[in-house]
Amino acid sequence: LSLSCPGQQTLPDFIVTDWLASSFDDFFGSASIPCSAVAVKPLRGRSGRGHGHKQEHPTPVTESSKARAPARKRAKPSAVDVPCARTRQSQSQSQHELLPWVERYKPETQNDLAVQKKKIEEVETWLKTHVFQGQPKKGGSVLLLTGPPGSGKTATLQILAKDLGLQVQEWTNPLSLDFTKEELKNMLDHDSNFHTFPSQAQAALFQDFLLRANKYNKLQMLGESSENDKKLILVEDIPNQFYREPGSLHEILRRFVRTSRCPLVFIISDNFSGDSNQRSLFPTEILEELCIFNISFKPIAPTNMMKVLNRIAAAEASMNREKSYTLDRNSLELLCKGCSGDIRSAINSLQFSSMKDCSLEKEFWSKKKKSSTIKCEEAEVSKVRKKSKCDTSEDQDIQAIGGKDASIFLFHALGKIIYSKREAVSEAESPQLPAHLSEHRRDTLLIQPEDIVEKSHMSGSMFNLYLHQNYLDFFSDIDDVVRASEYLSTADVICSNWSTRLVMESYSASVATRGVIHSNTSRAFAHQHGGKGFRPLHKPQWFLINKKYQENCLAAKSLFSSFCLPPECLQTELLPYLAMLANPMRNQAQIAFIQDVGRLPLKRHFGRLKLEALSDKDPGVPELFQWDGDSADGNPEGLPLPSSQSSTSDLPGSQPQPVTAQAILDEEELQIEEYDSD
Amino acid sequence: MSLWADKHRPGALARLDFHREQAARLRNLVQCGDFPHLLVYGPSGAGKKTRIMCLLRELYGPGVEKLRIEHQSITAPSKKKIEISTIASNYHLEVNPSDAGNNDRVVIQELLKTVAQSQQLETSTQRDFKVVLLTEVDKLTKDAQHALRRTMEKYMATCRLILCCNSMSKIIGPIQSRCLAVRVPAPSIEDICHVLSSVCKKEGLTLPHELAQRIAEKSGRNLRKALLMCESCRVQQYPFTADQDIPEMDWEVYLRETADAIVGQQTPQRLLEVRGRLYELLTHCIPPEIVMKVLLTELLNNCDGQLKGEVAQMAAFYEHRLQLGSKAIYHLEAFVAKFMAIYKKFMEDGLDDMMF
């Protein structure tokens, strides 16, 4: 075996260790890996250690994932077995008490889970159909679990796997330290691909893992029962390489799906910042192509969360009354609200705020309680305002506890602004507006537009663009539109100066959002639910349009520089007429450009430009905005604008190909020569 | 085969077709071999560039017409590379500094410096100075204009500037006072008719006088546009007839349709459609200011005299906003919405008056 690895011959001491290792592998693994299979396995240009690593793979993967699991932030079943540790020995009990509550009170049965019952059932049925009914007829068995962090994705899967008697084989990203000296040396020898090597190796290892885990069963160790040979593969850590090149992951998945024997589960947390993992790694085409089933978890509902928190608080209180401070119901509710559906963070902050020996904390809590009770009393007096008042006061409280920063997806943020909720104000309570201002009378808003913009994690001007794209659908009166559009226009002017933009953007968003909310008279009062029902939301077209405008202007300048005209004349006079002249002297790129830009789709019943719908979890920043920098090599073909060429069928016969950027550059060079010869 | 506008461009001051008196004066100006910095201004299509090139030819001889396009890259102090293309002959350099956007100051400083610092080698056949022709000076930022003022003083010995722009109003006073201002007014209708018929004669075509008159009127006294129109008439139909259609530019027709759509219905849905059309215009390289201007003209054609003042005022207001702001669509849309509201109110009032 060692002879088949050329790298080992030069370094004797490595041979020894490697030999030892591989021989142990053989010793343990003889049952499952026949020697012939190992010998035949191709090396694929990788060094000896890599080969050894491969051999020992089937054994250590399951082992190491189990062993490493407790070290990771997430709770694993092996970490704690029984929730009530008092019956155990003292040592294990003290150890148990040192565990964070998240670990100590991790759910054990389906009933403990705070996740919606429906979601659990969904996952369960999927697992059942794909594990126990053998091979599904079509497509592979890949499941994708998504949802915000702390919504119980992993816990659900672990518990279901336990209930169904499935082994979970989990992929963990190997550390780069796993490379041996020899491998490093190899890498340094061919230093040409030094930088790319580790990541490629990671991707290769991942592929290897998938295929092996798919093919081979876990080794049967001494004392383990052999009855459950069903298993599933779980991937939560995705090798970094795939973020850069999602294509390689798709390739691996395609291969996996073709040969899959056991289900593969991906767990990906939603995130609110622009780079959505789910969207880049699993675009919808791939989901459809590979029949990947996507189950999206919701944030834990407050009632479920309360149940769990109560249970934990009760258990703690019964266990050691002297050590921790018991929270009352009010505080628990505050906690619940503060962590926006993230149960892990809720339990953490519950533990944190129950620390008794922190005297400051106690005062802090009592003060909080007092203030909130006062608020509530107030609220009962003025019943009408109760909700909004309490909301704001509690919001502030939560900030103080150190709860999570709440954030909402853009889709919901826009919805909140557009379908602005109001609450009726009783006549007696609020001072009436004078008669000449009566048209501006509105019921109290139940939302804080500034908060919403902030929570959408977006710059003000960007949010305004989204708002601008969508507000018209929800207006029915043109006079309202006038006011709203004027506010939007003002908002744009406010943040136009680049030196003050950062500061002004929040003001600008405030003007725009409040302006749009206020001007929609069909939603002025609580009882009005404004003429229009649900309308789909869209992404702003402005970036695309603006980019195209800039690109076309640049192209015009470079293609027609020989006319020595200022851009404005060129674009508004020369190009449109050139389109009519069909002058034979122009070259292909020029003809194409003229026909595209000089012509407009006249007399056609105009529809709207193709819109990209904004879906539930889209990140805020459109992709166009991100590759603003390299607009030069954007391919005009890819832009979803309707080409106006389609409408002009009476073009001169030689209909040119669409211009690519390269063609433009080439033509530019030609152009200069041509001009010289004149 | 080039465009008529280029092909029949007069090459000498003496051969210019209109404003002959001014041409004679310009010839006198360069007779002595030197001239002050010039600031040539006038509406588009009035023949500013033609006049300048004639002047240079008078000064340097036919060598001026041998042009080459150069792409220069200038490094700004912030290490940013700026690409700009210039058109140059052996004697002069033409550049549009506003191509560089916000970095126009750097272009002015660096480019002029490199040109002006090198002395002319052979003073026997050449002049002592080079000429730099700056176009679209009114689009320069204030910064760049101040840089220009300094450069003008510093390199007076080796370099003359000819500034070319549409309007003097955006040029700072110090520059105006350092230049000899030459106003090139738009040609009159008769001038244009004359040019059109002479061009057609050179092309071997007969142009009916009525058609020439109509083209001239339609061109808005823009000679380039008139020539382009005439040439497209030729493509459309020859022999010419006096009452043939004069082709219009697509975007103008499109804007007229848009204006009709606005007048036809005043609802948010229609506004949404109009927004789509405005986007379409922008992607076809029509600058937002022009959209605003032409749209206003079309709308004014459609509305009652009473409204015109108010509508124009709104247009001015949003045009100003457009200049201040960064995203044109907000302001264009706000203007359209405002017009819709004004118009709708007017129509409803009119209906009420009719009823009672």
From TrEMBL, chain A:
Organism of this sequence: Malurus cyaneus samueli
Ranges annotated as biased composition (Basic residues): 44-54
Its cellular-component GO annotations read:
nucleus; Rad17 RFC-like complex
What the record says about family reads: Belongs to the rad17/RAD24 family.
Residue ranges occupied by any Checkpoint protein RAD24-like helical bundle domain in the UniProt entry: 406-508
Compositional bias (Polar residues): 87-96, 642-659
An example GO biological process term is: DNA damage checkpoint signaling
User: Where found?
Assistant: Chromosome; Nucleus
User: How does it associate, per the subunit comment?
Assistant: Part of a DNA-binding complex containing RFC2, RFC3, RFC4 and RFC5. Interacts with RAD1 and RAD9 within the 9-1-1 (RAD1-RAD9-HUS1) complex. Interacts with RAD9B, POLE, SNU13 and MCM7. DNA damage promotes interaction with ATR or ATM and disrupts interaction with the 9-1-1 (RAD1-RAD9-HUS1) complex. Interacts (when phosphorylated) with NBN; promoting recruitment of the MRN complex to DNA damage sites.
Please name the GO terms that the record assigns under molecular function.
Answer: ATP binding; chromatin binding; DNA clamp loader activity
Q: Which PANTHER family match?
A: CELL CYCLE CHECKPOINT PROTEIN RAD17 (PTHR12172)
Keyword line: ATP-binding, Cell cycle, Chromosome, DNA damage, Nucleotide-binding, Nucleus, Phosphoprotein
Name assigned to this protein = Cell cycle checkpoint protein RAD17
TrEMBL record, chain B:
Places the protein is found: Nucleus
Set out the biological process GO terms recorded for this chain's protein: DNA repair; DNA strand elongation involved in DNA replication
Q: What terms describe the molecular function in GO for this protein? A: DNA binding; DNA clamp loader activity
**Main localisation, per the record?**
nucleus
Keyword set, alphabetical order:
DNA replication, Nucleus
- Which intervals hold domain AAA+ ATPase? 34-190
Name the domain of life this protein comes from.
Answer: Eukaryota
Q: How does it assemble?
A: Subunit of the RFC complex, an heteropentameric complex consisting of a large subunit RFC1 and four small subunits RFC2, RFC3, RFC4 and RFC5; the RFC complex interacts with PCNA. Forms an heterotetrameric complex with RFC2, RFC4 and RFC5; this complex has ATPase activity but is not stimulated by PCNA. The heterotetramer of subunits RFC2, RFC3, RFC4 and RFC5 interacts with RAD17. Interacts with CNTD1; this interaction facilitates crossover formation.
Q: What does this protein do?
A: Subunit of the replication factor C (RFC) complex which acts during elongation of primed DNA templates by DNA polymerases delta and epsilon, and is necessary for ATP-dependent loading of proliferating cell nuclear antigen (PCNA) onto primed DNA.
Descriptive protein name = Replication factor C subunit 3
- The protein's organism comes out as Malurus cyaneus samueli
